[in-house]
């Protein structure tokens, strides 16, 4: 037996992607509520508030808000030991800056957690999963504003106090490091509620991203400290999007480019875990002359609020090549499929040695050794084992929790209503095997595994329904049509056995 007996087998979702009821129970609009549906390769539009007549897929999502009882029953049948979801900040503080919470919102999560606990399913809660109150964007500029630290901490303290006997496992900011891709609008907006002024330069975008991330890390550290005071048994973790960045070749320049790229994407977990900024980053801040607002008090807060574990998502790996070669004479930049275009001013700027500065959309290349999903996500199970080792060595075998992993694919419902998804089983099987190998052969300290979107939900990246991750099918299409009926896919029974056998039967 490789995995511990109390291994947390589960499933993961986020409030905005499944609950719906976007304005029910006095809930306020969040950043997810002002994002329209995109498509494969077409970015979602971020609108100025909710505009009548546009398709906002998160408004109804899969209507979990009204169906959670029957859904949780199905989760119990699947055999989940834990259920990772988020608390929608806007159900508790509809605008985000109120002093008093909304009782209806608090009651909803009391009922949901009671329902889970009734079946022995442990809730695992993310505090901020792309759900910042929209009011905090328009009135304060999102996490670019220091005031957001207090608003977040008030929210965190409120829910941690309320659910102190129902929830033990928490995470602060979901995939806090997505915003390392600051040249795009999507990640800075969903992570931090940042909207860049028209014509903002790459330098201004990058600086604002670092400022916001700093305030978030301080808010996270304060939350860890407060949480432990509320209940010393709480386990409070970081949540990092891990896409291992391999050097595309063994050319020393590619190796160095990969090292710097990993630093730029994963400094966030260094701060979460070690409680201070790494020298490679402060050196970069100085060189760039960012002059960020980082106070002595902030630095003390960071050291006092180190996380208990690292939660992370893993879907794919990246590869990087020292870049000069891939910018052609007409300025066209070759980038990974599905990653779109980047600001021209950054296309050829500051390439290569000696800084090896990393620009995500510019520098990543296709890895010919692995296949990719229809959405261009490179499939690499061994990369998960690599990632588990990377975190373990870096953070001295701190407990790790794989809180997202999965395969977005188009499913077909057969005439008899059945859904065969062997491609999903194959993906999950290979990743679970890699994770078990990491425990058995490499000694990583692993708490659990919660595959993403185990019930079909709205895609965060594209707003689509047809990019499905689930073992439970939900009858709804990209246009929002469908009965919302739930149906078990072939992978449902397969995962049931995996859990029952504690990962022995794959
Ligand atoms: C992660 C997020 O980025 O990946 C989830 O934490 C998201 O919210 C998941 O849904 C899969 O991405 P997508 O774009 O396929 O929904």
UniProtKB/TrEMBL annotation:
It holds the Pfam family Glyco_hydro_1. It comes from the Bacteria. One of its GO terms (biological process) is carbohydrate catabolic process. GO terms for cellular component: cytosol. Keywords: Glycosidase, Hydrolase. InterPro entries: GH, GH_1_N_CS, Glyco_hydro_1, Glyco_hydro_1_AS. Its EC number is 3.2.1.86. GO terms for molecular function: 6-phospho-beta-glucosidase activity. SUPFAM superfamilies: (Trans)glycosidases. The active site is at 404 (nucleophile). Belongs to the glycosyl hydrolase 1 family. PANTHER family: ARYL-PHOSPHO-BETA-D-GLUCOSIDASE BGLA, GLYCOSYL HYDROLASE. This is 6-phospho-beta-glucosidase.
